[in-house]
Every structure is written in structure tokens, then in C-alpha cells.
Amino acid sequence: MTSKAKKESTFKSYVDFKSDVTKAAEDVFDKTSEPKLLSGEIVIASAHNVLKYNSYGDLKHGISGTLFCTNFKISFVTAERSSYDLMEIGQRNLLVAEHDIPLTCVDSIYQVSTSRKTKLLNPGSSVSSGIKMVEIHCKDFRVFTFSFKFSPLGEDKSVVNAILHHAFPTQLPLLFAFSFNPSQHIVSNNTHSPAIAMIKGRKLNQRHFREARDWDQEMTRLGAKKLRVTLANQDFKISDSLPEYFVVPSCLTDNEVNNAADHFVEGRVATWCWSHKNGSSLFRMVSLRPDTVHNQYERRMLEAIKSTNPNDLPSVTIDMDRHCPSVSTIQGSFKKLKELCMPDSTKDFLSGDNKWYCDLDTTKWLQCVR
User: Fold this and answer.
1) What is the pLDDT of residues 191-245, one digit of tens each?
2) Which of 99, 209, 309, 324 has the largest count of CB atoms under 10 Å?
3) Residue 319 CA to its chain's centroid (Å)
4) Are 199 and 94 in contact, with CB atoms under 8 Å apart?
5) Measured between alpha carbons, how far is 362 from 143 in angstroms, rounded to an integer?
6) Which has the closest alpha carbon to 133: 125, 124, 150, 122?
7) Integer distance in angstroms from the first to the last C-alpha of the chain?
């Protein structure tokens, strides 16, 4: 005989599963996708529902997200909020995350057709028609492929034109470095991520060598003797390619530095770089200007460098123009290296994989950087 009445469950839950799951889902999916901005960084353009493809894939599977162009980087923010909010998981360094591309890292931008044919988009130009797909080649040999197939009308042109304009600035002051304020970034960033904690921890110890005390601390760290910080280049009076403050032998006065700067290329007199614990120091100095006949300034610099050695040993001079390859040689070698490391397709990569090291040696890049 079966019982008609079923026994009721006596288990009682004190956890509101429904509210917890709903809250977690809202935290993941209902948040607006926004890039993490630095102090002074602003969003210029964005495109939603963008697909990020594997660079050498079949263009059938991609990650959906929002593509942003700021005055510092190209940032692709995915819907995977859990991994995005935990910056330390995909953080490449203290400034950019896994899917971020600094504008200064952009080498070239191509418009891509469905058949994978590419068309170079010239720097500073603008696109007037809709773009379905772009390929961004980076100076560090990374390749990013973005599709605007599902993006709202007009957003593709807006973000691509912003990238073309801001990735290739025509003047140095347009670079983001002139707008970034590290101290303000720490104060205004209300987050507890390890990246910000690391910045806070390094704030007192990190030196940017923009102030005289930074150089004093570096000399103390290395135990450098018979050196001092010169104020001759305050407001960049003698050279705009040297730091405002740099280190010279103690026996050189600021007046001597000022007088000598007029006879060196771009005013780049002898500047200290590093010291070994045995007292040896490394300096760098450019050659005299071709139109100068005052060789005594170069001799004075070399004598001052020699005086910094505690054992009064003779200095060793290395002419880098003779020992290093020319700029055109390095550029040509780098171009070959880039072509080797950025094949057009997986097929091209596999076909040359068995002779990759031979091709690498052919570029002569290793000889340039040895």
C-alpha cells in the first residue's frame, strides 16, 4: 500500500540564492564597459559590438566588446568583466592591460576585406565610407584584428578616424606623456587593485630624473664620487635633447659647461650615466660640431672624466659611429625582421618555419643589437 501523502522536505536554506545570483549577474553584465583611464586621459571615440579576432585565425570566432580610442591608447574592453576588473590577471604593466595598445606602439593600420586583402590607411587620413574590419600592426610585432560587422552605423568610421589622427602625432607636445600626471593618477584613482598599490608603494622610491634630487639619490645608490648635478641646462638653455638636470664631473663648473655646449652637436656635452663599485664610470658625449675649431673643449671634457677615477687610470674612448651600424642599416634590418615576425597568414608562417633561424640571421638584426 503506497502512501498518498508525500513527506515534505525538512531542509531550510538561510541563503537567498536568487538574490545573490541576480546580483552577481548584474555585476557582470549590467555594468557599462569603460576603459580604465589614467590621469589626463580622455576617451575620444568608441565603437560597440566589436569583434576581436585571432590575428591568424579563420575570422569565424571572436571576442565581443567595445573598442575605445583615447589620447593615450586603443583599448578593447570585453564583456568578461570578472577578468577585466582583476587587472593583475591580464595586466601587462602598470599602464596598459592585455587588450590595450598604446598609440605610440601603432606601426600601421590596414583595412581588411572578407577575403583578407588589405589596404593601407595612411597616417592622418580619414575614411569616408564604412569599414567592416581593420588590422592594426604594432611596433612590437603584435597584430590586432577588429571587425565592425555588428557595430552601430557610423561608429566604425568615428573610431578608425580617431586612431588614424591620434596614433601619428605631428608634434611632440601632442604625445600623452605631456598630459599624464602620475601623482594625480594615484590620488584620483579610487581602486584597491594591486597595480595601484604597486604604484603607491613605488611612489617614494621611483625616480623620473626630472629633478636634481633624483640624480643625487642615484649617485648615492651607486656610490659615485667626484660627480655633481649641474644646473647649466635649467629651462633647457643649452640643449633641448638633454635632461634639464644631469651629472658632470665635479671639477667642471657650470660656466665651463655653458661655454663648451656651443661647440658640441646639439649642445650635448659629457654626461654621466653609471658608476661601478670599483670607481669606474660611464659617460657619453657627442662629437664636436663640424664648424668648430676649438678642440680644447673636448680635451677639457676628457680630462674632467679622467679625474673622476679614484685610481687615476686613463679613460677609454669608444667612437660609436665607427663601431655601430648606421641608422639606415638598422632601419633596413628592422624592416626585414618585422616582415619575418609578422607573416601574412598561418600558411606563410608554417611554410617558413623550418628555415626561420636562417632567415633571422639573414636580417642581420642580431649583429645590430649584439
Assistant:
1) 544 445 554 555 546 788 989 999 999 999 999 999 999 999 999 999 999 999 9
2) 99
3) 30
4) yes
5) 23
6) 150
7) 91
CA distances from 323 to 263, 270, 281, 319, 369 (A): 23, 19, 20, 7, 12
3-state secondary structure of 52: strand
CB atoms within 10 A of CB 140: 10
Q: How far is CA 257 from CA 41, 124, 247, 298, 362, in A?
A: 38, 41, 11, 11, 45
- pTM equals 0.68
Report d(CA 114, CA 106) in Å as an integer: 23
| Alpha-carbon distance values, 99 to 85, 121, 170, 303, 312 (Å) | 13, 22, 26, 52, 53
Q: Is the dihedral of CA 234, 240, 243, 248 positive or negative?
A: negative
- Distance between CA atoms of residues 143 and 149, nearest Å: 19
Where b means 16+ CB within 10 Å and e means fewer, 166-180 reads bbbbeeeeeebeeeb
Residue from 152, 118, 153, 148 nearest 133 by CA: 148
Q: Residues with Cβ < 8 Å from 165, sequence gap 6 or more? A: 124, 126
Can you tell me the distance from the alpha carbon of 55 to that of 137, in angstroms, rounded to the nearest whole number? 10
